[in-house]
Each structure stands twice: as structure tokens, then as C-alpha cells.
Amino acid sequence: MECDGSAAQAWTAPADGTLRVAGQCLQAGGAALTLQPCDGSAEQAWDRTAQPGDAAEVASVTSGLCLDPGAGTVPGLANCDGTEAQRWHLP
User: Fold this and answer.
1) Global pTM?
2) Which residue of 13, 37, 42, 83 pairs with 90 in a disulfide if CB–CB is 3.0 to 4.6 A?
3) pLDDT tens-digit profile of 50-90?
4) CA 27, 83, 4: angle at the middle one, nearest 5?
């Protein structure tokens, strides 16, 4: 799906460590990402480390892997490598 700026694509990053969109939480499961109802589980918790340029490296609390844009249109998780590709501008 292409980015279109709609409310359905507006992510939030509340202080509870979750990443949310459309009333659901981003959940890490192995190297896969899914959207699930928010339940407070560790799989839905993300560490955010500030990086240069007003961006953050975002890592799964359970695996330590970083949110990665991947190849194509589906992001995934990968070893944190400090590259700009793994820097995200959070709301």
C-alpha cells in the first residue's frame, strides 16, 4: 500500500512504548511484524534510541532486533546496524 497521508496510516508512539495505528499495536513475533489489539505484552513494546537528525532507532524489547524497512513495501526486523535505513521519524 502506498503512503497517502490518511488517518488510517497515522502512527502514534505513546509513552507506554507501543507503536500504534488504527487502534492496534505493532507486535513483533520472531522476525515478523503484525498489528494486534493492544494488550500490554512485551511483544508490543519498543525501545527508541535517539539518532542524529531527529530520528530514532526502534528495537523490539523481546528480540532486540530493529525495525527495518526491508526490501519492497513490507517492513520487518533485522539486526540493528546503525544505518540511516533503520532510523525512523516518530510522531
Assistant:
1) 0.86
2) 13
3) 877 778 899 999 999 999 988 767 788 999 998 888 988 88
4) 55
